[in-house]
């Protein structure tokens, strides 16, 4: 798996990340969603540099221009619900992409800190031999991403898999490296310190889904 850390150089990306983490600014859910969306746009641009392109001729009002365009289809697939705002940022740039959505959540079967990942709702197009971009803001343990990809892989094989996360923990990255195929790219906006005893990212930013869309039961 190839890992791309896109916040290593200072840019406006780090400005948006700072606002996401700020406990005062993040109280504004509309601003929180917008910052996630902006980060998605930046990540989409950086990811686009690794795709394959083909030469084409385009007619302008005054002549012909030799240029390039993306050679192969892109499918955007988000893990609900936290992935929706990040998905919008990617969709703003990959506006011809097909779109898919999958639900995954932690099920605490003993009503304690232990859990299993349940993947239920799925609505996704074919991604056979396409570039699949799986979108999930927080990479904590990595179990949700692996569970979703295992479910999506039952019948179809993408050409390449790109995983886009805003904040990642080292434990989650290690888990993906052990459990995902070599043709995966992991795009990380920010790498944090570790997971706590409840497997939440430290220092992190809190629950991205709740901050974006309100608390859940």
From TrEMBL:
<keyword id="KW-0342">GTP-binding</keyword>
<keyword id="KW-0021">Allosteric enzyme</keyword>
<keyword id="KW-0328">Glycosyltransferase</keyword>
<dbReference type="GO" id="GO:0004845">
    <property type="term" value="F:uracil phosphoribosyltransferase activity"/>
</dbReference>
<keyword id="KW-0547">Nucleotide-binding</keyword>
<comment type="function">
    <text>Catalyzes the conversion of uracil and 5-phospho-alpha-D-ribose 1-diphosphate (PRPP) to UMP and diphosphate.</text>
</comment>
<feature type="domain" description="Phosphoribosyltransferase">
    <location>
        <begin position="9"/>
        <end position="214"/>
    </location>
</feature>
<comment type="similarity">
    <text>Belongs to the UPRTase family.</text>
</comment>
<dbReference type="InterPro" id="IPR050137">
    <property type="entry name" value="PyrR_bifunctional"/>
</dbReference>
<keyword id="KW-0808">Transferase</keyword>
<protein>
    <recommendedName>
        <fullName>Uracil phosphoribosyltransferase</fullName>
        <ecNumber>2.4.2.9</ecNumber>
    </recommendedName>
</protein>
<dbReference type="InterPro" id="IPR000836">
    <property type="entry name" value="PRTase_dom"/>
</dbReference>
<dbReference type="Pfam" id="PF14681">
    <property type="entry name" value="UPRTase"/>
</dbReference>
<comment type="pathway">
    <text>Pyrimidine metabolism; UMP biosynthesis via salvage pathway; UMP from uracil: step 1/1.</text>
</comment>
<dbReference type="GO" id="GO:0005525">
    <property type="term" value="F:GTP binding"/>
</dbReference>
<dbReference type="InterPro" id="IPR029057">
    <property type="entry name" value="PRTase-like"/>
</dbReference>
